[in-house]
Amino acid sequence: MQGFVSALLVGLGGLFLLVLSVVLLTKTWRGAREGYERRRRALLLPSIVAYANAESGLITDFVPTPLKGWNRRVVEWLLLDHIRSLRGHAQARLALAFEQLGFVAQAHAQLTHRRWWVRVEGAEKLGRMLARPTVPDLIRLMDDPVPEVRLRAAKALGAIGGLAAVETLISALKATDRWATLRIADILSGLGPSAVEPLLAAFPRLPPAARIPAIDILGRLRSHLAVPLLRGLLADPDPNARARAAHSLGLIGHPAVTAPLVEALVDPEWPVRAMAAKALGRISGDESVDALRRALSDSEWWVRANAAESLRSKGDAGRRALLVALEGGDAFAAHKAAWMLQEAGVLDALLARLGQGTEDERREALGVLRRLVALKRTDLLQDIASRHPDAEVRAEVGRLLQAEAVSA
Known about the structure:
Helix content is about 75%, strand content about 0%. It is mostly helical and about 400 residues long.
């Protein structure tokens, strides 16, 4: 028994030493590789930069070939890292370098690998390499049975761009997977103006599930070309489409849509009214001020909140409308106006007149204070009484609070 235990301890000790040796060797090897790659990167970077900025010449004129082993990894890493920060001629030069050095062919071969994660890696690299000749194969990869492969192919197509890529991504909006649809919508949004016209042309053929992301994309692209379509969607039977169209019109900010957005403030569905109120705050001009003031009386909190915020953004005209709502007989509108006037600093500016203004200005400020008392907004008054820098204002507000306490 004692011999068995001794043998077991010796075996365990040997196993521990073996594992320790493997760990130390692996760490040493990794450290040596990283040190070598770091030195090679520092040595090769000036050559890569010189090639990118040159008017002509092959990458092989600047980087010694053939590339093998660690040197190949270093050059690929440098090119992939550097191409992200370049535009125009220099970026096109690096994209060509990937082809000349065989990196594109290597990544392209991965697209047909039987393991899905290898296909993912190939698609991702081709996108980063801006390998335009591989677009047809990336398009075919959009039919891959593995969702992650399809999404990486979509991301690569978005990075490369071009009409074929845009049209394929628009077709992919029809995917039944909502998460995939949203991710593809993000990719399309990043393509910029080149996506607008193909998306407008494809929109009538999109299924209902793809229409909402498409409407959002058009808003994020902020192109005036989308205004006629989005304006027409304010009358769409789907309330979600109407709401998203209103939101997108606000992002575009074209003044010609003020009138239809004002009409949307009386839509039977409150999300449409809320989005219309928010959109009007992003469009310049005072034409919507009266309609937004009426929206302060809406039965839905979100509509009132968005209308008040939009009035706040309308400058003097909006602030005057909020003061009118504060003095009106509608409690909903008055409470929302009081809150927004406080947020905008209008109350502070008005109340400063108690100590420094003319008699008419003092009378106006006292009128606002009494209206706040009538609305039971003593929270606002207490805030003013505790922090206002003018002692006379604090005293006046304190007297009103005391009178309110006595009457209560």
